[in-house]
Amino acid sequence: MSSIAQKKGFGATLWDYLTTVDHKKIAVMYLIAGGLFFVIGGIEAMLIRIQLAKPDNDFVSAGLFNEIITMHGTTMIFLAAMPILFGFMNAVMPLQIGARDVAFPFLNSLGFWLFLFGGIFLNLSWFMGGAPDAGWTSYASLSLASPGHGIDFYAIGLQIAGAGTYIGGINFLVTIINMRAPGMTYMRMPLMTWTTFVASALILFAFPPLTIGLFFLILDRMFGGNFFDHTMGGNTIIWEHLFWIFGHPEVYILILPAFGIFSEIFAIFARKRLFGYSSMVFATVLIGFLGFMVWAHHMFTVGLGPTANAIFAVATMAIAVPTGMKIFNWLLTIWGGSIKVTVPMLYALAFIPSFVAGGVTGVMQGAAPLDYQLHDSYFIVAHFHYVIVGGVVLAILAALHLYWPLMFNQMLSEKLGKWTFWFFFIGFHMTFFIQHFLGLMGMPRRVFTFGADQGWDLFNLISSVGAFFMAAGVIILVVNIIITAVKNVPVGNDPWEDGRTLEWAIPQPVPFYNFKQTPLVRGLDTFWIEKQEGNKEGMTYAEPLSDIHMPNNSFIPFMMTVGLFIAGFGALYNGEKEWAVPVLVLGLAITVASMAVRSVKDDHGFHIHKEDLMNEKGGK
Amino acid sequence: MNTTMKEGFNLAMMKGLKKWRLFSLLAALTIFLSGCGEEYLSTLTPAGQVGRDQFNLLLLSTAIMTLVVIVVVIIYVLALVKFRRKKVGENVIPKQVEGSHTLEVIWTVIPILLLIVLAIPTVIYTYKHADVSAMDHVDADGNKTAVTVNVTAKLYWWEFEYPDLGVVTAQELVVPTGEKVYFNLKAADVKHSFWIPAAGGKLDTNVENVNQFYLEFDKESAGLKDGVFYGKCAELCGPSHALMDFKVKTLNRTDFNAWVESAKTTEAVAEGDLATQGEEIFNTSCIACHATSAAGSAGGVGPNLAAFGDRNRVAGFMEHTEENLKNWINDPQSYKPGNLMPQPEQLNNGEKFSDEQLDALAEYLMGLSIEK
C-alpha cells in the first residue's frame, strides 16, 4: 500500500509480490493470507455455535460437524494464528535488531508460499470429497478409520505448510543470531525479538516430531504402512506422543510472540521501561524449555500409569512460576508509569485478567486426578480458548493496531478499534467463561449435539450468543481496515509518540533497504535513549553511508511450492487413480528442477549505490 | 494468664480465624458449584469416593487460583486507577525502573509454595486412583471379593462383561454400591473414553491395551431423575460420538446379587401372540448379532438385549418408548450416523419392516427383562 505500489499496474504489483524476498512485503502477505484463514476459521466457529445453540439441533449433520470442528481447530492454529504472528515477526523483528532483511530472504519467501499452498491444499478438501473429520489432533485409530480423503488432505496439507513454518523458524533464528546491529547485544534485544527467537527455537525442535507423525500417517493411509495399525503390530499411542511432543511446544510457539507483543505495548503506553527485563528474558527461555517437558499432560487419561502422570503433573505446575513472573512484571511495568489507553493498550490490559484466568485453569488441569474429570470436557475447551483467544488472538488484534502504521504508514481508527474491542472482549468472555461450568456439569467436547434437559441448555445458548458478539467485533475490524486503506492518510514514524525501539525510528514508509546506515545500538530501548538525548534523527549510526547489497527477487520459491502442491495430489490419490503416480513424479520433478536452477544459476543480488542513497529523502 | 500464654492464645485464635476463612471460602465454593448441574451427571455432585477426591482437588485448586486472581486483580486495578496519563499529567516522563530483586524473589517463591500445596494431594491421589491391587483379592473359597467389569467400547455402544460372574450386558452398567468396582477398559474398533462424570474421572479405552481403574458409588441410583447415572464417551470416535451414552444403575449388594442371579438364569420368553411373532422375526433377522441371554461372555457383534425391557434408553440416547424403538429399527443410520447396525433392507428382503412386523418386534423386545 505504499505510494510506489499504487503507481504500478496491477500485473506488475502482483508479479512483485509473487517474487518478492523483502521481509516487509512477505509480512504483508502473511497478514493477508492469515487474516483470510482467520475469517474462514471464524465462520466455522460460528457454525459450531449455531449448531450447539439449542439441544437436539439439526443445523448441520453429525459428520459435517466433525469436519467443521477439525477444520476450525486446524485452520486457527496452523493457518491463522501462526502465520499472522509470523507476519508480525517478519515485519518487526529485522527492524528491531537493525537489519536490512532476514538472513535468508529467498527462504523467507519459500516459507510463505509453502504455508499458503499447504493451507489451500487443506481447504480444498471441502470441495474434493469432504474435509478431515478426526479433530485437529487426528488421533490415529480414528484417523485411520476415517473414510474418504479428508485425513489425507490434513496430513499432506500440514506437511507442506509445516515445512514452510520450519524454514521460517530457522530463518528467524539465524537472523537474530547473525544480523543484529552493532551494540545490539542479546540482553538489549526488545522482548518481541526475544520471543521470536525462543519461539523459533521451539519450532526447530517441535516440528520434526510432527513431520515424522504426519509421514507415518501418510504412509499408513496412502502407501500401506502399519505404524499405527495395532492389528499389524503398530501402536496408536505413538501418534499421540508424537503429536503432543509437537503440540505442547506449539502452544508456546503461539503464546510467546504474544507475550513479546504485549511486553512492547506495556512499555510504550506506560511510557516506562519494561520492569524486570532480565527476568522476563529468563522466564521466556524457561517457559520455552519447560514447554518440552510437559506434553504428556494432554494424555493423563491415556493410561500411562501413576508415575508418569505424577511427574508430568508436577512439571506442568512448574510452568506456572515463570508465567506468573511475567504477569507480575507487566503489572509492575504499568505501576508508576503513565498509562495511555489506546486500542493496543486496551487489548494488553484486557489480556492480563483473561490470560490469568486461562492460566489458572491450566494449573487445575495439571493436577492429574482432577484432569481425569476435566479432560475432553467443555472445561478444556474453555481453558484453551482462554489462553489462545485471551492470549494469542488478543495479541494479534493488539499488534494489528500497534504495527499497522509501521507496516502501512496509516493509522487504524481508534474509535472503531474500541468498538471492535468491546464487542470482541465481551463476546469472548460470554462465549467461553460459561463453558468451564458446562464441562464440570458433564458435557464432553466435540459433541455435534446434546440431549435436552441435562442441565446444559441455557449455558450453551449463552455461549452461542457470545460468539455473535465476537463476530460483530471482527466485522467492525474489517470495516475499519477498509476505511483506513481507502482514506490512506500517511502518519509518519513513531505515530504512538512513545516508541522505544528501533522500528519506530525508521522514516516512513520504510525504505526497501530499511536502514540507510546501520544503526549503533546504545542500550535497551535505543530509540527512547536517542529521543531523551534530543537526537532528532532517532538513531546513531555505526557506519558511514556506503553501497548497500540487496538480494534479487525470485520466482523460484513459488515454483518449488507449486511442485509440492501438485505432488500432494499424486500422493493423495495413490492406488486409486491411474494418473496418481505420474502426477506425484511430475510435481516432485518441478520442485527438484526449481531447486537445481537455484543451485546452478548465480544470483549475486545488486547494489544500491551511495550516490542514489544520498538523493533519496528518508522514505519512499 | 501471663503474656506468653496470651500471645499463644491470640496466635491460636488467629490461626483458627484463618482456617475458618479458608473453610468458609471452601464452603461457599461448594455451595456455589454444587448448584450447577444435575445430580446424575455433574462432576460437582460426586456420587462416590473417587469423584469426591477429585471434587476436593477442584475445590482446593479453585481456592488457590482464586487467591492468585484476587492478588493480580488488586494490583491491576490499583495501577490502572493511579497511573492513568490523565492523572499523572500529559508530559510526565515516569522513572525508568529496571526491576527489583526482592519482588522477583517474592513472586517466584510464593507461587512455588502455593503449587507445592496443590502438588502434594495431586501426587497422592494420582497413585491412589490408579491402585487396582485389590482387584484380584479372593476370599477363603477362592472367589473374587470385588466386582470387576470388562468394558468394551464399540462404535457407538458399550459392552459390560462380568467375567467372574458369567454375565454380560450392554448399554446399562449395573454395579453394587458401597464398594470399589474395578474396570478393565478396551476399545474394539477406534479409541473411546469411559466417563461417568458423577462417579469420577474418565479413562480412555485404547485399541491396543487394557486400562484398569476403579470407581465407587455411595448410593443407589433408584432415587435419581431417571433412576440411573449418566455415562458418556469422552473421546471423539466418529459421527455419532455425541450419542454414545450409557447409563449406570447402582444397587445395594443384596439387590446386585439378586440381579446377577436373575441375569444368569432368565431365559428370553415371548409372552402373548404378538411377542411370539416378534420373536420369530427376531430369530430370522436380528439374532445373528444380538444375544437375548445375559449369561455368557463378551464379544457380541451387537448389544446384548437380554435386559432390553429394563433399559432406560433406546439406542443409548432416545427415550425408551415403543415408537422410538420402531423408528430406530427401521432407520438406524438416520438416528445414529455411522453406526454398524444394518439397515432393515439388508435384513428383510430389501424392504423396510412393515408396521405389523415392527409392532411385533417392539412387543417382543420390550418384554425382554431380567429384573422382573
UniProtKB/TrEMBL annotation, chain A:
Keywords: Cell membrane, Copper, Electron transport, Heme, Iron, Membrane, Metal-binding, Respiratory chain, Translocase, Transmembrane, Transmembrane helix, Transport
Enzyme Commission identifier(s): 7.1.1.9
Residues of the Cytochrome oxidase subunit I profile domain: 9-522
Single Gene Ontology BP annotation: aerobic respiration
CDD domains reported in the protein's UniProt record: Ubiquinol_Oxidase_I
Broad enzyme group: translocase
One GO CC annotation: plasma membrane
Places the protein is found: Cell membrane
GO molecular function: cytochrome-c oxidase activity; heme binding; metal ion binding
Pathway of action: Energy metabolism; oxidative phosphorylation
Recorded catalytic activity of this chain's protein: 4 Fe(II)-[cytochrome c] + O2 + 8 H(+)(in) = 4 Fe(III)-[cytochrome c] + 2 H2O + 4 H(+)(out)
Lineage top rank: taxon: Bacteria
Transmembrane feature ranges: 27-48, 68-89, 110-131, 151-179, 191-219, 251-270, 277-298, 310-332, 344-364, 384-404, 416-438, 458-483, 555-573, 579-597
Membrane topology of the entry: Multi-pass membrane protein
Family affiliation: Belongs to the heme-copper respiratory oxidase family.
Protein name: Cytochrome c oxidase subunit 1
